[in-house]
Structure formats: structure tokens, C-alpha cells
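User: Could you go from structure to sequence for me? I need the amino acid at each position, not a summary. C-alpha cells:
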């Protein structure tokens, strides 16, 4: 039986043409014409002071850790329900992760638990906007400002989404984006660091250029470039930036396609969900979502496992999502114990993500929904 895949990378059509243009211009390393175009487009659309394209969201998070001068003994607060990179980037520099539980409704970090986890060692909080639905940024910013703690938004899911009318990624001192092929806008592997605190911009450019002031040199601000700080190689090749530029300029078209799929799922599944004790995503009125994923929260783990194998046997590739980090092998080394983040543990067992990709047809969406509705637990 032909499977409806969980994801299928999408091309808008002119990616190869733009890559050819990059090749013909003899500049295919980082910071070429397409890198600059992507950065300017993002700065303008998001209304942020600086965007730097990076090799991945993971690398943008590592840059954020370097910018905040994370050292052994520092603590960072991260949701347990996230991708490993959210925490790894900081642990790599010796930080101790402190795991915070999530809210039952949006699956974002539970801001009501934030203050009691802050200690004099807390350096940063890393809110992850799950499925691109904004965390409660008003409370998070108020609490962190009062304690002198930095905010780094992991916005891998949420490009072009808004919280109270303001773009996600524009709240923290820095924020990170991903252009991995599983995200809304892709270039294979790629990412971006958004820098909202202007004092961090120059150092971010240095860190991204192997610890040199090469960016200042190219702007004619110094007459030679040299080693001035720590750094690494975080520049995205202009070949990939060209691919990404094709995608970003087609953003309205891509988001319209995704919105249709999401809304169709919601319409087709709402009644069944209500009658079967299944929860569909909750989007608070003050959040505009980017239609990154469609998930369901089913009654329990057995139900979830049965449903996933039933769907697979009936041609639908649905998947679960994050395993809580506090009970992972590494998380336990940092003192995580079962029971610490009960909502994360519970939701992780019950979550099902449905196939969701830009080119998904109406018929495919209907087939997935019909198959679900016919499920006998
Ligand atoms: C995808 C993802 C990342 C990592 O992105 P890469 O670009 O693959 O490094 C980080 N955090 C979250 C929440 C993600 O979903």
C-alpha cells in the first residue's frame, strides 16, 4: 500500500536557478549575495536589528551560548519537552540544565513554575515555541528581567508566527531559527541567529567568523582582519542561501498551503476528537500560529501505540514526538528524575503528529482523517 509520508521536502521551483546564479557569481562560500538577501528579508519582515544565517539552528544556539559567555556552574532553564539541541548547546559549555515542565494546553514551558527554578546561578531561560505557538512572553520577560536572566528563544518551529501581534524571535536577547528539511522553510540544513540586543551584534559576527573581525574588514571599518575572540565556523554556504531565498520569497504561498491543510484537519477531526476524549491543538486568541504541525493528544500510551501501528498498516505515517529530556540518559546525569515534569511525561506518551507537508493534497488530508475516524482503540 502506498504510504502517505509524514514529511516530504518541498521546492517552490526556482531553487536551482538561484543556485546557478550563486555559482555564476563566483561566490559560493558564506556571506555572499544570497546570504545578505535572506538576512535583509528576515530583518525587515521580523522587524529585528540583525539576522545572521548559520549552518543550523543547533549552531545558532551554540552561538547564543558563546554570546552569553556560558561557563561551568551556570544554570539554564529549558523545557524538558524539546529537541536535544535546545539544551546541548549550553551543556557543551558546562551549563547545568534545569528542566521546567510544560503547560497542558499549548505544550509550551509553564511560566507559572519559572520563578521558583531561578537561582543566583541562572544565566538564561530558553523558551521553545512549540508548534510555533508563542510562549507566554509577557510573564517570561517580566520574571527574567526582575532576576537579570537572559532569554534565548528557540523558534525553530515558529518563523513568521506572532505573540500579541509581535513576531516570535523578536523577544529574547537572541533567538534561533531552523531551515532543516522538516521545517516550514528549508534549505536542507541551515539556521539563523536573530540578535535583538544591539550590543551583541558585533561579537556575534566575530564568533560566526572563527573569532576574527573579518566582517568589519569587509565593511572597511578596519584595514586588516585578525583573531580577536573565540569563535567557530557557523556561516551558511551561499549555495544553500540561494535555495533558502527561493523559499523565503514564496513564504505567503507556503503559509497559505499549510494553513489550508491545518484547517482541513481541524474541521475533519473536531467532532471525532470531542467524542473520543482526544485533544486537538489549542491556539490562544493572542497567538498567530505558523501552521508548523498538526498534533493530537490521545487518552493514553496504549491507545497511542495502537493508533500509530494501525495508521501505518493503513498507509498513514504518523509519528510521536519528543521524549522528555529530564528522564533521558543524559538528563538523569544532571539530576533529572521521573516525576519531575509530570505534564511532559504524560503528554510525551499521548502525542501523535499527523502527516503535514506543503504539497499534501486535499485527498491525502481526507484519507488521513477518514482513517483516524475509523480507528477502533
Ligand atoms: C529542528 C529543531 C532544532 C534543531 O534544528 P537544526 O537546524 O536541525 O539544528 C532545535 N530546536 C527545535 C525545537 C527544533 O525543532
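Assistant: Here is the amino acid at each position, in order:
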Amino acid at each position: 500500500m502506498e504510504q502517505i509520508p509524514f514529511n516530504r521536502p518541498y521546492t517552490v521551483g526556482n531553487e536551482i536557478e538561484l543556485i546557478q546564479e550563486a555559482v555564476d557569481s563566483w561566490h559560493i562560500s558564506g556571506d555572499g549575495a544570497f546570504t545578505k538577501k535572506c538576512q535583509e528579508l528576515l530583518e525587515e519582515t521580523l522587524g529585528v536589528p540583525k539576522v545572521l544565517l548559520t549552518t543550523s539552528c543547533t549552531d545558532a544556539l551554540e552561538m547564543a551560548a558563546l554570546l552569553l559567555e556560558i561557563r561551568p556552574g551556570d544554570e539554564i532553564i529549558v523545557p524538558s519537552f524539546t529537541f536535544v539541541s535546545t539544551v546541548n548547546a549550553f551543556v557543551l559549555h558546562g551549563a547545568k540544565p534545569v528542566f521546567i515542565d510544560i503547560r497542558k494546553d499549548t505544550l509550551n514551558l509553564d511560566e507559572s513554575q519559572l520563578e521558583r527554578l531561578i537561582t543566583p546561578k541562572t544565566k538564561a531561560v530558553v523558551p521553545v515555541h512549540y508548534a510555533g505557538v508563542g510562549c507566554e512572553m509577557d510573564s517570561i520577560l517580566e520574571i527574567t528581567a526582575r532576576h537579570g536572566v537572559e532569554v534565548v528563544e528557540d523558534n525553530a518551529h515558529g518563523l513568521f508566527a506572532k505573540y500579541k501581534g509581535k513576531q516570535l524571535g523578536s523577544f529574547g536577547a537572541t533567538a534561533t531559527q531552523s531551515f532543516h528539511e522538516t521545517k516550514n522553510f528549508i534549505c536542507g540544513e541551515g539556521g539563523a541567529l536573530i540578535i535583538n540586543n544591539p550590543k551583541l551584534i558585533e561579537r556575534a559576527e566575530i564568533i560566526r567568523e572563527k573569532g576574527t573581525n573579518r566582517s568589519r574588514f569587509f565593511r572597511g571599518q578596519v584595514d586588516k582582519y585578525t583573531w580577536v575572540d573565540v569563535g567557530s565556523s557557523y556561516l551558511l554556504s551561499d549555495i544553500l542561501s540561494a535555495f533558502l531565498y527561493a523559499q523565503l520569497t514564496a513564504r505567503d504561498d507556503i503559509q497559505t498551503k499549510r494553513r489550508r491543510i491545518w484547517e482541513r484537519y481541524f474541521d475533519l477531526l473536531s467532532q471525532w476528537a470531542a467524542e473520543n476524549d482526544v485533544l486537538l491543538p489549542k491556539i490562544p486568541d493572542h497567538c498567530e500560529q505558523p501552521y508548523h504541525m498538526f498534533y493530537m493528544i490521545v487518552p493514553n500510551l496504549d491507545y497511542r501505540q495502537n493508533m500509530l501501528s494501525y495508521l501505518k498498516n493503513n498507509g498513514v505515517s504518523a509519528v510521536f514526538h519528543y521524549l522528555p529530556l529530564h528522564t533521558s540518559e543524559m538528563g538523569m546525569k544532571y539530576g533529572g528524575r521521573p516525576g519531575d515534569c509530570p505534564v511532559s511525561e504524560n503528554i510525551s506518551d499521548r502525542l501523535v503528529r499527523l502527516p503535514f507537508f506543503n504539497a499534501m493534497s486535499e485527498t491525502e488530508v481526507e484519507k488521513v482523517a477518514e482513517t483516524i475516524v475509523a480507528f477502533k482503540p
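One structural detail worth keeping in mind: Residues 15-249 form a domain with the Aspartate Aminotransferase; domain 2 fold (CATH 3.40.640.10).
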